[in-house]
């Protein structure tokens, strides 16, 4: 079985080759190590292998995992953010990829102002139009950017994020990644702003994403293997946004049952 360093060498080689095909500098592309459902030991493994960004899907999972993990990585929220979890998210994450509405941006700005922080975000765009996916429509991104610029002084938008529809063929994702890049390029020109970050591409299609302009690729399975199958037994959100009596900042994780 290959260790993480060997796997990373292959992945980075694939990224370098994709950059060469697209006439890009490989230094423009960073790997986000997606550690969802894995334990704190996997975060340390990623850190020791030279990965500096950890991606998590859930606020409540990060609330116990981050304190139990090695100090050093940047933590990025790549999953859907509920408005009642914004305060916790701003406490835990260095970057939020999944802002998908004006309402959520306003909530982030309000809480950030109370906390005295300046969050960095991406706007999540549902390029494919799939009803099962979060994200705003491509047509609404411009008005959202204008709103944030005028009404959300605490928030900095650094780019866009998307997920392509699942397919066994990576090439099927290309039109969606290309559309996000073209959308970004057009908005930069029209609004006279910089949106340098494009978060797109996962384990099955990251090479295509890099060819189409990704600056962050979100990789989990290709690095760490299949995720453990788990069932959360105790970690239910309270009315106040807490997690069912769980001391989410103690480092003790929720009770989890591993499924065969």
Describe the protein in words.
With 260 residues, the chain is an alpha/beta fold. It has one domain: Alpha-Beta Barrel (TIM Barrel). 38% of the residues lie in helices and 17% in strands. It has 9 helices and 10 strands. It has an 8-stranded parallel β-sheet with strand order 7-6-5-4-3-2-1-8. The longest helix is centred in the N-terminal third of the chain and has 19 residues. The two termini are 21 Å apart. The C terminus is likely disordered.
Structural topology:
Layout: H1 4-22, E1 30-34, H2 40-48, E2 53-56, H3 59-68, E3 74-77, H4 86-92, E4 95-99, H5 102-115, E5 120-124, H6 141-151, E6 156-161, H7 174-191, E7 197-199, H8 206-211, E8 216-219, H9 221-224, E9 230-234, E10 255-258
Parallel strand pairs: 1-2, 1-8, 2-3, 3-4, 4-5, 5-6, 6-7
Antiparallel strand pairs: 9-10
Radius of gyration: 18 Å
Can you count the beta strands?
Answer: 10
Task: Give the tally of structural domains.
Answer: 1
- Identify the CATH class: Alpha Beta
The structure class reads: alpha/beta
Helicity, as a percent range: 25-40%
In what range is the share of β-strand residues?
A: 15-25%
Helix count equals: 9
Mean pLDDT: 90
User: Which word captures the global form?
Assistant: globular
Low-confidence segments, ≥5 residues, pLDDT <50? 231-252, 254-260
Name the CATH homologous superfamily.
Answer: Alanine racemase
Nutshell version of this structure?
The chain has nine helices and ten strands.
Features of the shown structure:
single chain, 260 residues, alpha/beta, TIM Barrel, eight-stranded parallel β-sheet, two-stranded antiparallel ribbon, 9 helices, 38% helix, 17% strand, disordered C terminus
């Amino acid at each position: 079985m290959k260790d993480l360093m060997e796997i990373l060498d292959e992945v980075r080689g694939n990224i370098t080759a994709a950059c060469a095909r697209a006439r890009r500098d490989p230094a423009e592309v960073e790997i986000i190590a997606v550690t969802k459902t894995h334990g704190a030991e996997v975060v340390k493994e990623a850190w020791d292998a030279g990965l500096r960004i950890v991606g998590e899907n859930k606020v409540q999972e990060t609330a116990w995992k981050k304190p139990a993990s090695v100090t050093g990585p940047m933590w990025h929220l790549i999953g859907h953010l509920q408005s009642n979890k914004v305060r916790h998210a701003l406490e835990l994450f260095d970057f939020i990829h999944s802002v998908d509405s004006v309402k959520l941006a306003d909530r982030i700005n309000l809480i950030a102002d109370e906390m005295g922080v300046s969050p960095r975000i991406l706007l999540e765009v549902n390029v494919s139009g799939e009803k099962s996916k979060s994200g705003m429509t491509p047509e609404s991104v411009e008005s959202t950017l204008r709103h944030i610029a005028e009404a959300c002084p605490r928030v900095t938008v650094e780019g866009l994020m998307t997920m392509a529809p699942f397919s066994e063929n990576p090439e099927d994702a290309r039109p969606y990644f290309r559309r996000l890049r073209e959308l970004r390029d057009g908005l930069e020109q029209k609004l006279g702003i910089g949106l340098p970050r494009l978060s797109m591409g996962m384990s099955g299609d990251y090479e295509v994403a890099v060819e189409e302009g990704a600056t962050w690729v979100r990789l989990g399975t290709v690095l760490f293997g299949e995720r453990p199958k788990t069932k959360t037994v105790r970690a239910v959100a309270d009315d106040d946004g807490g997690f069912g009596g769980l001391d989410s900042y103690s480092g003790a994780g929720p009770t989890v049952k591993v499924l065969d």
